[in-house]
Specification:
alpha+beta; Thrombin, subunit H; twelve-stranded mixed β-sheet; six-stranded antiparallel β-sheet; 20 strands
């Protein structure tokens, strides 16, 4: 963490303006995948960690292909009374010692209210060497579903010979013409297989083929179970599936899958995806933002609200512009966990795990849906706090399967 501090005097209080840079180190490991370290304090610290990892995993240091560093500005929002004693004034940091108890209370409540999940995101769990070793093993249990050489989505191992993903991952395979009539035998074709390599660009030594077992295309309960039909001793072990009800705590989850915007064909571990606890507030804020008028100082968009602006781009890409109006609608609450993650196309079906390695849910969609139909340059400027990802809780998957096939439910969940 690199801090630069600027001091100034105001209303007799000593104020500090602190600019915080948060290092984000991205590591690709051969035969494992990619790991996103967000809590390493320096490049030197990263080198030490890399060396210890290589020693522990018994792999050469050359296995770390490359390291990318990003510096993200992160602001702590705090406040004080203005010179007249009315209202609140924003600052990036402040000397608490000179504040009265009342003023400290104002600062604390404002940080909690306004910084919220963004501030909490700065304090992600540190991964120990043992954690990384364990998650490297978990990553081997996640694969890519490939059809005719194209990445269709992420799958993960469960039970002895089963895989879990979402229905939307297999939908284009079993109903290629989008007629509404699914032919599940199409998924058994030789050109459909699972690749467990760290990159889908690497041709696997053995192609695991699959058949359909059970699924549902209900929007609020989107899952699929597949079975390996040509098993051998190289098949990765199954992950532990958590059927217990999800509690209300907001500890981050760990996502494993393909479709990271920077390395879409690499298997990636996002090592702390913050849970959005106040999803209703988030959605209302997004809807309000979508209906606001664009910047009047920009001639190209003056007078247009954001909804009209995005509709024009979606239509230019050949899609129905009306999907913009549905961007934040029909979002289920009870069956889902909402998070912020850095995965896009190809990530559907990714497992999201707790810190002890239990799969809590499966990624089924990202919001707003029209985001994925925008030109890349427009997506690059889309505010991060106006997007979020939806995780289907496995407790509901277990309940649905148990009612239809108790034997399969027991094989998957134990």
């Amino acid at each position: 963490m690199i801090n630069t501090v600027h001091e100034k005097k105001r209303s007799g209080l000593k104020l500090k303006k602190e600019k915080r840079y948060h290092n984000n180190l991205f590591v690709k490991v051969e035969n494992v995948g990619a790991i996103n370290f967000v809590t390493v304090s320096s490049k030197e610290g990263m080198r030490v960690l890399m060396k210890s990892l290589c020693d522990e995993l018994q792999i050469p240091e050359a296995a770390f292909e490359s390291v990318f560093e990003k510096k993200m500005d992160s602001e702590k929002i705090v406040c004080e009374k203005d010179e007249e004693g009315n209202g609140l004034k924003e600052y990036i940091s402040q000397d608490f010692e000179n504040l009265t108890p009342e003023e400290r209370g104002n600062v604390t409540s404002e940080v909690n209210r306004r910084a919220g999940e963004e501030f909490a995101n700065l304090h992600r769990k540190v991964l120990t060497q043992l954690d990384v070793n364990l998650f490297a093993e978990y990553m081997k249990c996640v694969g890519a579903l490939v059809n005719n050489g194209e990445l269709f989505g992420t799958v993960f191992r469960a039970g002895d010979v089963y895989l879990m993903t979402t229905f939307n991952v297999i939908q284009r395979i079993i109903d290629p013409c989008n007629t509404g009539q699914a032919d599940y035998t199409l998924i058994e074709a030789e050109n459909v297989f699972v690749n467990f390599n760290s990159s889908v660009l690497d041709i696997p030594d053995y192609k695991f083929r699959v058949r359909h077992v059970i699924s549902t295309d209900t929007p609020l309960l989107d899952y699929t179970v597949l079975q390996i039909i040509n098993n051998n001793d190289t098949l990765p072990k199954g992950l532990k599936l958590d059927k217990k009800p999800h509690n209300t705590e907001t500890r981050p989850l760990y996502g494993i899958g393909y479709g990271n915007p920077e390395t879409p064909f690499y298997k990636v571990l996002d090592n702390s995806c913050p849970i959005i606890s106040s999803i209703n507030t988030r959605i209302l804020d997004c809807v309000k933002w979508l209906d606001e008028t664009q910047d009047k100082n920009v001639p190209q968009v003056a007078g247009l609200n954001r909804s009209q602006y995005f509709k024009a781009h979606v239509q230019a890409m050949g899609f129905d512009p009306n999907i913009v109006d549905k961007g934040y609608q029909c979002i289920g609450r009870e069956q889902h966990i909402f998070i912020n993650a850095y995965m896009e196309r190809g990530a559907s079906g990714s497992p999201f795990l707790t810190s002890d390695g239990c799969v809590k849910g499966v990624l089924i969609s990202g919001y707003p849906a029209f985001y994925f139909h925008l030109p890349k340059i427009v997506r690059s400027g889309f505010p991060r706090d106006k997007t979020f990802e939806c995780i289907l809780k496995l407790e509901y998957v277990h309940q649905h399967i148990l009612e239809r096939d108790p034997e399969i439910a027991n094989k998957l969940f134990g």
